[in-house]
Write a structure and sequence with these properties.
2 copies of one chain form a homodimer.
Chain A: H1 6-21, E1 37-38, H2 49-63, H3 78-90, E2 97-99, H4 103-116, E3 122-126, H5 131-138, E4 143-147, H6 152-157, E5 163-169, H7 181-190, E6 194-198, E7 215-218, E8 233-236, H8 280-284, H9 287-296, H10 298-318, E9 322-323, E10 335-339, H11 343-354, E11 356-357, E12 359-361, E13 365-369, H12 377-393
Parallel strand pairs in A: 1-11, 3-4, 3-5, 5-6, 6-7
Antiparallel strand pairs in A: 2-8, 7-8, 9-10, 10-13, 12-13
Helix pairs in contact in A: 1-12, 3-9, 4-5, 10-12, 11-12
Chain lengths: 407, 407
């Protein structure tokens, strides 16, 4: 795979043709982009141009000029309003989704609420789930049945009548495997358990039909392009809301909070899952990115994610790289995971010498994240060419194999 | 008290002289201000000019250009770095304070942590505490001894050997009464209880010596001028940190989070009280406001708060208004509470017709918040003149007495 070779020329021509034909290609102009080949949108999405403008407005006009009055002029409704927009990305109905806190805090609230409303005590999950979710479960003093498999079949088989809750990452953060949401939701319901999906690696990346799922949480700083640590979201199916109580009974979850009554009475509907005052800057920042996805349509975004991940895999195969992401596009998200014993130094070399930002996950996974709204096929072709150069020339040997830092 | 009268001229002359002599007067230029007389900084502080600039930098350069790399270039350390700056405002040592989540979530974490580490089950508080704190306690399934008094003596008398925790707002949100922190901390310790102070209405308003207090939480969007819903903080005395565990075991509280180990092991020190990914925009927004207070010095800020609240009270007395805030400046914060049966329509009339933004708290309290860094004596004189006009002319009768909306 050399610059001069026919193979690379073919690859580039193919990429170029795909970009020209891409119905979503024009969305790239709506983001702040540069020459960097950024394949880490699955960790922190890029800045939509409209977001920079929105934040200036929130800070300089709404806060600077209207000060406290802005609470009554839109801020108070933001968690519901943005929540409902996220709801449209995941197939939820109005009033089922709310923007609040961090994914971790939301996960804690919903697991606690679900377990308080049931006799069952066992939570089923898998060891490839995002570690924060595992840590949070460990802090809740419950019995955890953690299976070492990503297979839907094995997970379904781990459910029984002692199971109170099944919780999984819809798309696994390392492998990129996407679970069959309907199948596992049905399997949980069949044993009388609830299911809580962590949508962090699938929302905005692939179409989601939340269907009959009970609970979900997710993050807005990856494929929703909401900005660093942007406000997360949670979903509770309508008919469950009245029966569930957040353990964190803060005033924003109170009915008529501004009456300042002395006794907590949870707000009706999804609002009861709010806790404290929402961080307006980090919350407002999520809206323009969500709007872009709604404008593009998740079906089209998902189609492009399937095509671009397939394109990446094809090149990875031609380089004899070990792809651990499922081949069936219905069973993967929007990133491709490559296992390589030198994944860490390769990632460092790509960043330092090749203007390619991949993602690394310990101990040996190179994650290549695709954000269909701004990733071009040409970027993918060029990135793979540079990855091949780094591996073939062994320049990565100059980088420490000792894993450290943030990636 | 009429425009033409001697009294109002004397008041204005006095205010003008005080402004000229004010050693903090020049700080007003560091904020975005206008003709509005804004006496609601105790609810949402004004925008520091440096904050608008900082947020542009965080959004447009750090997120827009450096994207994921910014995590390693400062974002990861922000909770500790800003936490330590807040620590300097409250007399804490380095490594005792961290910026995180909302005040409500932090309060929940610390109460849960404190009660898990003790056999005692009774939490003592008072009914004038901020309702969110009461709601959170009610959600924790503990015995609450809630006394109907703001008196330090009565509160101390309510402590006994069954008390696990005493928790109070350092400055009461309605009356503005400031508790004797040392006295009540000692009283709690004398019965073997811990104390948790909510500093939301005192931090940045008056000097605080956290002393031997065990735990504290507080808000940054009032006197710290951090912006709407800005990231809150929590404090845990150094020697207690290792024994306490946050119930919300998110990955940002994990030791070496980026190793992605499967088992939770809390970070050493105050970092263990983080939960999920911090909201960088709402967190970074807090720093310039904190820096302004450090630059001014909390002793000077507290002195001015005492003088300006005294000034307000003197005028209120001359108008025969009922001030419910303590007369001893050591026993109050930086707002003056006036009880009036028509407080709500008066507040509405002031906003709609007089360009004065006071704060209202149900059922009958007009709160006049002073932010010593940007409130002028002339503002206070003019505000009181307009309040007198609204009351004397009874224009407030045109406004509904039915309380509603946010204030």
């Amino acid at each position: 795979l050399k610059e001069e070779g026919t193979e690379i020329q073919n690859l580039k021509s193919k990429a170029s043709a795909l970009d020209v034909a891409d119905p979503l290609g024009h969305f790239r102009d709506r983001f702040v982009v540069d020459d960097l080949i950024y394949l880490d949108g699955n960790s922190l999405g890029r800045l939509p141009k409209a977001t920079a403008e929105r934040i200036r407005e929130v800070v300089e006009q709404q806060w600077g000029e209207r000060v406290i009055c802005s609470w009554g002029e839109g801020w108070l409704d933001l968690p519901q309003r943005i929540g409902d927009k996220i709801g449209r990305l995941i197939g939820a109905k109005e009033g089922e989704t709310i923007a609040a806190d961090s994914t971790s805090v939301n996960f804690y609230k919903l697991v606690h609420a679900a377990l308080s409303a049931t006799d069952g005590r066992v939570v089923v999950t898998n060891s490839s789930n995002f570690p924060s979710d595992l840590y949070l479960l460990q802090g809740l003093g419950i019995e955890i049945r953690q299976i070492d498999s990503e297979s839907d079949e094995a997970i379904a088989a781990a459910l029984d009548d002692r199971t109170a809750l099944l919780t999984l990452s819809h798309v696994e953060f390392k492998s990129g495997l996407r679970h069959d949401m309907k199948r596992l939701t049905d399997a949980a319901h069949a044993v009388g358990a609830k299911v809580l999906w962590d949508l962090s690696h699938s929302v905005g990346a692939v179409p989601i039909d939340i269907g009959e799922a009970d609970l979900a949480v997710g993050c807005t700083y990856k494929y929703l392009n909401g900005g660093p640590g942007a406000t997360a979201f949670l979903y509770v199916r309508k008919d469950l809301q009245e029966a569930l109580r957040s353990p964190i009974q803060g005033w924003f979850g109170q009915q008529n909070a501004f009456e300042f009554g002395l006794n907590y009475s949870p707000a009706g509907g999804i609002g009861r899952f709010l806790a404290g005052t929402p961080p307006i800057l980090s919350l407002a920042a999520t809206e323009p990115g969500i709007d872009l996805l709604l404008e593009a349509g998740m079906d089209k975004v998902g189609e492009k994610a399937a095509l671009q991940t397939a394109f990446l895999m094809e090149v990875a195969d031609s380089l004899s790289l070990e792809v651990i992401t499922p081949r069936n596009p219905q069973r993967r998200g929007s990133h491709v995971a490559i296992r390589h014993e030198a994944a860490w130094p390769i990632a460092q070399a790509l960043i330092a010498e090749k203007s390619v930002v991949p993602d690394f996950r310990t101990p040996d996974v190179l994650r290549l994240g695709i954000a269909p709204l701004y990733t071009r096929y040409a970027d993918l072709a060029e990135a793979m060419k540079r990855i091949a150069e780094v591996i073939e020339t062994r320049v990565y040997h100059a980088y420490s194999s000792e894993i450290g830092g943030v990636t």
